[in-house]
């Protein structure tokens, strides 16, 4: 199963027919993906299950409906084991951004974290889960694929929110503070915790 979020509602892409007992279960050959997204946007549907026994066929059918944007980002820890958060669009988030031409995913993730937060001396320790979410841009739906990395930094300098990207705060949060911040974040970010 792969979960893609739209407005924090899950679209579950499944290969197990046992999900057919779920309320909003559809076979991929019987649906038009943009119309499902439209219904979710209207509030008619919340959680959706789209089925095909072959995941590659299911993924191809699903993704052909979208422009795909790839991004890299980080779940960054300092030497106090605090996690780096940004605040944008009235939600707590983790720093991430689009991969530029000629960049590796890892290079993009480090660059974006540095640009959005001011943190330097980043080191990637492992790759985390990849997340997927859909949003509307210029009246068209976009699928954002975000590759996440666990990073560390012993940076002690001042944090600088990238204001031109709508980021208003950058902070290091303890476990308890992060737990509170996760009450006001996106479901795809919660997957990383």
From TrEMBL:
InterPro entries hit by this protein: Nudix_hydrolase (IPR020476), NUDIX_hydrolase-like_dom_sf (IPR015797), NUDIX_hydrolase_CS (IPR020084), NUDIX_hydrolase_dom (IPR000086)
CDD domains the UniProt entry points to: NUDIX_Ap6A_hydrolase (cd03673)
Keywords associated with the record: Hydrolase
Pfam families: NUDIX
Residue stretches making up the Nudix hydrolase domain: 67-193
Sequence similarity: Belongs to the Nudix hydrolase family.
Protein name: NUDIX domain-containing protein
């Amino acid at each position: 199963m792969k979960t893609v979020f739209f407005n924090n509602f899950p679209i579950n892409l499944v290969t197990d027919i046992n999900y057919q007992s779920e309320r909003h279960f559809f076979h991929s050959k019987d649906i038009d993906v943009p119309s499902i997204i439209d219904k979710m946007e209207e509030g008619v549907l919340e959680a959706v299950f789209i089925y095909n026994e072959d995941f590659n066929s299911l993924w191809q059918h699903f993704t052909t409906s979208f422009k795909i944007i790839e991004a890299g980002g980080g779940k960054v820890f300092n030497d106090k084991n605090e996690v780096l958060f940004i605040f944008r669009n009235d939600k707590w988030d983790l720093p991430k951004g689009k991969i530029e031409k000629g960049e590796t995913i890892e290079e993009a993730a480090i660059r974006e974290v540095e640009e959005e937060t001011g943190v330097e001396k980043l080191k990637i320790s492992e790759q985390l889960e990849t997340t997927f979410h859909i949003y509307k841009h210029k009246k068209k739906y976009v699928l954002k694929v975000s590759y996440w990395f666990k990073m560390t930094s012993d940076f002690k300098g001042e944090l600088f929110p990238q204001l031109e990207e709508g980021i208003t705060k950058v902070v290091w949060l303890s476990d308890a503070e992060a737990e509170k911040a996760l009450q006001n974040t996106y479901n795809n970010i919660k997957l990383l915790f």
